[in-house]
Recover the amino acids of this structure.
């Protein structure tokens, strides 16, 4: 009796396994190895049914039993021997999916940078000259105006236009940094740091061995955006007073080390801290790089980013250290 119950349970389990295996046929792109497993599971179920019938007293030809056992042995044996091919195929599918996701992210970032550059050019070359022409016309009217009240109004209007021109230049530069495009990553980062220490009460130590070395456009732009994001996070969210930034290049990689003395946070709650860390991880991931962020409440934040480089070997130059601490009132 117990043997019959066990056989029924085995038939049920093998039937369920066969049904699930059939559902996965499409996922494996009808792999011959997987089909052999399905045939083996089905034949195994048939074998258990035959055994159950034998226990129930039904006569079953021995030749038929041997044929079923042979089919089970052949299918499962071949399937096991070539199962590694199925696993390799699944790994290849996963790799292709990851590669496609990375390409999609890279294309998205490239499109974003192109839109930034186009908008920056329109502001700088379109609206900027118009405001400059208006400023010159107002200056001419101001020189010829005799009424003090009207001269003061023209002077105030000219001042507002000058402020608008400065704002447009700043917005244009933030959208697409001209220093980064013309002089490279190190100079672009230095220029951004100069602006930060002018507007905030912060001390930033920047060390680099890059000099005037140029890298692929994607690498320069994405690393620049990441550094800007890290510094802005430290100033706006962590209230940091001291930031250490080291950007070095070796023969095979670019490495960014970043640390601040801010209030810190819990990296596990990325979605709650609102500091754009997922954006940083996405940008670094689009270059195939690695990003590790360590922090704890009250303990500041440290970031370690590594990206492979394809440019020629860079000789190590004396590091350049920049220390500033000013406040714009």
């Amino acid at each position: 009796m117990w043997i019959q119950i066990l056989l029924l349970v085995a038939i049920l389990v093998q039937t369920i396994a066969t049904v699930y295996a059939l559902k996965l046929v499409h996922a494996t792109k009808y792999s011959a190895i997987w089909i052999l497993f399905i045939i083996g599971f089905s034949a195994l179920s048939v074998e258990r049914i035959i055994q159950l019938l034998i226990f129930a007293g039904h006569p079953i030809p021995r030749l038929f039993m041997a044929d079923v056992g042979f089919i089970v042995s052949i299918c499962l044996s071949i399937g096991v021997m070539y199962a590694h091919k199925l696993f390799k195929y699944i790994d290849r599918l996963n790799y292709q999916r990851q590669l496609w996701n990375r390409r999609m992210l890279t294309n998205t970032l490239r499109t974003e940078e192109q839109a930034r550059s186009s908008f920056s050019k329109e502001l700088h070359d379109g609206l900027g000259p118009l405001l400059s022409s208006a400023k010159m016309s107002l200056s001419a009217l101001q020189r010829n105006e005799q009424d003090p009240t009207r001269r003061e109004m023209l002077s105030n209007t000219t001042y507002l236009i000058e402020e608008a021109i400065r704002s447009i230049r700043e917005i244009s530069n933030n959208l697409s940094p001209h220093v980064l495009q013309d002089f490279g990553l190190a100079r672009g980062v230095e220029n951004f740091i100069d602006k930060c220490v002018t507007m905030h009460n912060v001390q930033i130590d920047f060390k680099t061995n890059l000099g005037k070395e140029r890298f692929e456009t994607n690498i320069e732009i994405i690393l620049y955006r990441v550094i800007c994001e890290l510094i802005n996070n430290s100033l706006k969210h962590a209230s940091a007073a001291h930031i250490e930034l080291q950007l070095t290049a070796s023969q095979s990689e670019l490495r960014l080390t970043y640390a601040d003395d801010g209030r810190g946070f819990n990296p596990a709650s990325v979605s709650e801290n609102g500091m754009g860390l997922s954006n940083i991880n996405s940008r670094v991931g689009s270059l195939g790089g690695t990003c590790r962020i360590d922090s704890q409440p009250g303990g500041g934040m440290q970031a370690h980013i590594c990206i492979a480089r394809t440019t020629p070997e860079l000789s190590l130059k004396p590091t350049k250290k920049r220390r500033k601490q000013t406040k714009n009132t």
